[in-house]
Amino acid sequence: MNSLLKVIASGLLASFSIQSYASKNTEISGSIDVVSQYVSRGLTNAPENDAVALQASLTASLDQFYLFYWGSTLNYSFREIQTGESFTADKFEHDLGFGYNFNIADLNVDLWDAFYYYQGGKNTTANELGVTLTKPISEKSEFSLGVATFLYDVAYMNQWDTYLQLEYTHQINEKFTTIWTTGFSYFNDDGKYEGGTFLDTQTNFTFRFTSAQLNYLIHPNITGYGQFIIGGHNRSDIKQKNSLIIGLNYDF
Prior knowledge:
Layout: H1 2-21, E1 26-35, E2 53-62, E3 65-73, H2 78-83, E4 92-104, E5 107-117, E6 126-136, E7 141-150, E8 162-171, E9 176-186, E10 205-219, E11 222-231, E12 243-251
Antiparallel strand pairs: 1-2, 1-12, 2-3, 3-4, 4-5, 5-6, 6-7, 7-8, 8-9, 9-10, 10-11, 11-12
């Protein structure tokens, strides 16, 4: 917990001090979330954290380029699964990346690359390359399409495993916003770690999940939300259960 709290403290410090010294083209932003559980891409049967999770992000933007960090508490560690040794400091996910954001007419294009780091894990630092296209449909609605693929084999993903996400966002009024999300995956069944502890690929193409989320703006920087997930299937073709997640977000 200490390492994530340090990130949060650094983010808050950045929001209050760094911006005063940054150039007019540089922006520092971030967020802190508390969620009832951390579910990654519809994997409701085995959440990254099935208890309350603390999450934080920090983004530094310079014109159209940006660097970002995102982190979350977990209720497991790869070291514990792989070796049997358990350390609290290992139970975190750290995502570091960079991107380039630009517009073509009213279409926003976000190109990004992210590294996923798990302290103490063996062959667990992954690299995923993605692009997200977002287009407004009306003054209060937008649609986005995102595609991302893993660039090399790791213990829990094969090279070229690809994730596709469709998302529709609609602002109902000044307080309420709805977000509808659906995810699909292509799973490569030929990888260095296939058949190991984490990889048992039984299907190449699968529907991951669909979800409906309702956001409520409590304060200009604080949002409460609830997300209901209808489970699809994982790479082992195991049906995922439906799940409800509630959370509180603070943006700075």
